[in-house]
Amino acid sequence: MSPTAPARAVIGGDGDARGTLLERFSGQRLSPVQRRIAQYILSRPGEVVFLSSVQLAAKAGVSQASVTRFAQTLGFRGYPGLLRFVRERVGAAPHHAADQETNKFVSAVAEEVDNLQALQASLADPSPLSTLGRHLAASSPLSVLGLRASRPVAVYFAAFARKIHPDIRLVDEGGSWALDRLDEARTAGASWVLCFCLPRYPRETIAALRYARQIGLQIGSVTDQPLAPVTELSDLVLLGAVGARSVFDSQSAPMTLATLLLEAMCDADAHRAQRRLEGFERRAAAHRYFDLA
């Protein structure tokens, strides 16, 4: 597979409305600011149908003029045309529990529930997740990349993956350090790298993935949006939306995907996983790792 032209698959789309919108957005050459607007619409189409151009600009963190130019780039005369298009695709706006609540904490949890339900729906066909799990299990060593806000998910995945895989290499620092770690893994025989890349998509992550492709590694990514920058560099992409109702994003769906990927890796090589887990339990008992009631 060419390192510059990955045959990627994006897994985890969120319903017919989002799929139709994504198809329309994906056919355009969008600037980074326009991609931010598109990502916001894709993540909350039921909310966007009630927003003015000023409100959408504020929500997406862009200018009103950028929203207008985005609509024109898509072929609409202005924002009203884009809004009609979104409303036609969404139909009756979904009525979420979060819309009924005045307590912001309840609203934040309700959004997480929505994100997990969308993930559940996307996994009705488990074969893409299983395919990625099989590739990750077969790559030895396996690098796990996660920087900044994505680091906690990568650390969680790597900690448990070490119990079922013989050579997991966590890459949680960027710059030349990350490039060195990827080089070492490739030299040792790695064929895949797993990347967690959640907002705000660190440039160091993108640079590391570009280098991974240059040295012949295939890339599996967990991110939150089909238009996230890592999708263009990845061979397989799993989507788990982040919660954005609080000051800081919450990552329930991406964390769930990390757990499910571990399960898929166990399924891919059940004998090895069982052998390594039994070995860990023997060590845990011998050294009294845990204080169990």
Total separate domains = 2
Helix content: 55-70%
Q: Strand sequence of the main sheet, in spatial order? A: 1-6-5-4-2-3
Shape: globular
**Main CATH class of the largest domain:** Alpha Beta
One letter per element, helices H and strands E, the order comes to: EHHHHHHHHHEHEHEHEEHH
Number of helices: 14
Characteristic key phrases:
6 strands; globular; 9% strand; disordered N terminus; alpha/beta; Rossmann fold; Arc Repressor Mutant, subunit A; 2 domains; 293 residues
Description:
The chain has about 290 residues and is α/β, with parallel strands linked by helices. It has two domains: about 15-95, Arc Repressor Mutant, subunit A, CATH 1.10.10; about 120-285, Rossmann fold. Helix content is about 55%, strand content about 10%. The chain is built from 14 helices and six strands. It has a six-stranded parallel sheet with strand order 1-6-5-4-2-3, with helices on both faces. Helix 2 packs across helix 5 (about 65-75), helix 8 (about 105-120) runs parallel beside helix 13 and helix 13 (about 250-270) packs across helix 14. Residues about 1-5 and about 90-100 have low confidence and may be disordered.
